[in-house]
Amino acid sequence: MNIWKISIKNLFHKPLYTFLSILSLAISIGLLLGIKQLDASVKQQFDNSLGNIDLVIGAKGSPLQLVLASIMHIDNPTGNISYKEAKKIGKNPLIKTAVPISYGDNYKGYRIVGTTELFANFYEAELEEGKPIKKPMEVILGHTVAQQLGLKIGDTFLSSHGFKDNTMDVHTEPLTVVGIYKPTQKVIDRLIVTNLESIWDAHDHEAHEAGEAHEHHDDENKEVTSLLISFKSPMGLLTIPRQINEKTDFQAALPKYEIQRLFQFTGIGVKIVSWIAYIILVISCITIFISLFKMVKERAFDLALLRTYGASNFQLIKIVAYEGFTIGFLATILGILISQSGLIIVYNMIENQYKQNIVQSISYTDILETSLWVFIMIIVAISLSILPIIKMNISKILSNEK
Predict the structure, then answer these.
(1) What are phi and psi of 124, to 5 degrees?
(2) Taking all residues of the chain, what is their mean pLDDT, rounded to a whole number?
């Protein structure tokens, strides 16, 4: 007697019901795996992009916006600050590194950041090829930028004003590629890095063409978007942010604190979606139980007949168990495929809109944890559905007695 063949035939006896059971369970598994992996991947991406930056100083406004704009490069800046005053702050003995950045232009949607040679140190970025920037209008490309745009050493291009690619507001002075960074899996991979003079010169030239007064800028009237800081010791972290916020016209934002606050808000949504997925998972397992229980009740005569041909209760229970575990196995495989396919779509959307190249990796721990939940619930469903087999009265069933 081939128990396995009997189980498969029972599954295909009502293919639509079986398909719906597998699909509903797979959707819940896909939701659980997808939301957990997306949450973990985004957190990891944000943590990596923070680099070694302890503090961001910029114009007054939302501290979260300042962090997202100056470190993650996915928001608009809160304004500009005086370069002269920023340099004064950077001379504080508690500060290890103070790097000014200035931006406002892009090429094909990738932001161009004017800064100093110390900027790459925050991300431990090294040149893969080329040389450091020596003069204005030279740029070094992040690894992702070079790959996506197909640019190489010696190529030139024209930048556009703003953060979105456009052909209406294009600067006339070309930028020349002199270097490409090695991949870091950090935000610098999707940035075009130049010096501060390139940003100032491009906008000075733009102002001159517009008929505005054009004069040589010195430190008195130069501006930058923000100042990125790392400290020598925790003492700087305890004192300088308060001094900046209370005694200057600037604001100081702590990147790790602001990102943590952001994930506290988004964590609520993650929990809601996870609970919805768990509810669907429970409902799916109840559906499987009903399906198995109905099979046992409807095919009671066939099961009783098998008993008369020598089948034991254990063999009949195996028929039901094989059906339940087959549904669970197929649903788990389909759920994993659904989660990974959905994540590919979401990651592509994020990359196209925000130029964020999020690393996608399967969390085997989450898969094992979710599979264990499915296994336990199917065990419960099988245990409840085999009760009629255990209590089976063969003589009554075969004689059609109720």
Answers:
(1) 55, 40
(2) 87
Strands 175-181 and 138-141: parallel
Query: Confidence band (pLDDT; 50, 70, 90) for 359?
Result: low
Could you report the per-residue pLDDT of 202-250, keeping only the tens digit for each?
A: 776 554 454 444 444 455 679 999 999 999 998 999 999 999 999 899 9
Under a CB-based contact definition with an 8 Å cutoff, are residues 184 and 124 in contact? yes
Contact present, 117 and 197 (Cβ < 8 Å): no
Question: Rounded CA gap, 224 and 14, in Å?
Answer: 69
d(CA 190, CA 112): 10
Phi then psi dihedrals of residue 179, to 5 deg: -160, 160
Place of tokens 């950077």: 90
Residue type, 329: F
Tokens encoding 161:
């004003």
Query: What b/e readout covers 261-298, taking b as 16+ CB neighbours within 10 angstroms?
Result: ebeeeeeeebeebeeebeebbeebbebbbebbbebbee
Across residues 335-359, what is the average pLDDT?
81
100 touches 222 (CB < 8 A): no
The amino acid at 331:
A
Q: Which amino acid is at 381?
A: A
Residue 97 forms beta bridges with which residues? 230
Q: Whole-angstrom Cα distance, residue 175 to residue 138? A: 6
Helices in 299-386 by DSSP H: which ranges?
Answer: 300-308, 313-354, 364-385
Please say whether the beta carbons of 98 and 90 come within 8 A. Answer: yes
Q: How far apart (Å, rounded) are the C-alpha atoms in residues 105 and 84?
A: 22
pLDDT for res 375: 92
Pinpoint the alpha helices (H) of 51-79. 63-67
| Single-letter amino acid, residue 348 | N
Q: How much of the chain is in helix, strand and coil states, percent to nearest 5?
A: 60, 15, 25
* Local structure of 116: helix, strand or coil: coil
> What does the DSSP 8-state code read for residue 399?
T
Reduce the DSSP state of residue 112 to 3 states and report it.
Answer: strand
Measured CA angle at 324 (ends 338, 375), to 5 deg:
65
pTM: 0.77
